[in-house]
């Protein structure tokens, strides 16, 4: 059985997923998700590419010592991890405020429609 055949908790096998997919709420949910994900992905990839290019072509700059044996390359490399956690935190906040209310509304409509059909 494929994952698409397993259904969703609270949804009956008769749920019309095409109707849900073409609803205005679902389109709004996809738009809001893409509004965050695509720019953030481009930003992070550009940041990572900058790090790789600096590491490859700016050896003197990246090996500049800041404190003791800590150099610019090490700091920028560690900032890659920091930026990953920051993006994750931003996404969670964004999802809680902008995505989850719409997703909850869609889920309630689906579950409510199914309860009405089952009665």
In N-to-C order, the SSE pattern is HHHEEH
Poorly predicted tracts of residues:
none
Structural Rg: 23 Å
Helical content stands at over 70%
Please describe the biggest sheet, giving its number of strands, its sense, and whether it closes into a barrel: 2 strands, antiparallel
Q: Quick check: average pLDDT?
A: 88
Number of β-strand runs: 2
The N- to C-terminal Cα distance equals 28 Å
Overall geometry = elongated
Strand order of the largest sheet: 1-2
- Helical element count? 4
Keywords: Membrane, Transmembrane, Transmembrane helix
Pfam families: DUF485
Transmembrane segments: 36-54, 66-92
Protein name: DUF485 domain-containing protein
Structural write-up:
This is DUF485 domain-containing protein. InterPro entries: DUF485. Keywords: Membrane, Transmembrane, Transmembrane helix. It comes from Amycolatopsis cynarae. The chain crosses the membrane at residues 36-54, 66-92. The protein is mostly helical. The protein has four helices and two strands; from the N terminus they run H-H-H-E-E-H. The two termini are 28 Å apart. The protein has a two-stranded antiparallel sheet with strand order 1-2. The longest helix has 47 residues, at 72-118.
């Amino acid at each position: 059985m494929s994952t698409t055949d397993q259904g969703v908790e609270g949804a009956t096998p008769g749920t019309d997923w095409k109707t849900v997919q073409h609803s205005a709420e679902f389109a709004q949910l996809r738009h809001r998700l893409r509004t965050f994900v695509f720019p953030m992905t481009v930003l992070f990839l550009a940041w990572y590419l900058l790090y790789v290019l600096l590491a490859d072509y700016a050896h003197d700059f990246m090996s500049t010592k800041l404190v003791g044996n800590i150099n610019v390359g090490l700091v920028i490399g560690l900032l890659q991890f920091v930026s990953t956690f920051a993006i994750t935190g931003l996404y969670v906040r964004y999802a809680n405020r902008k995505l989850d209310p719409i997703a909850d509304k869609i889920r309630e409509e689906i579950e409510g429609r199914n309860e009405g059909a089952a009665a």
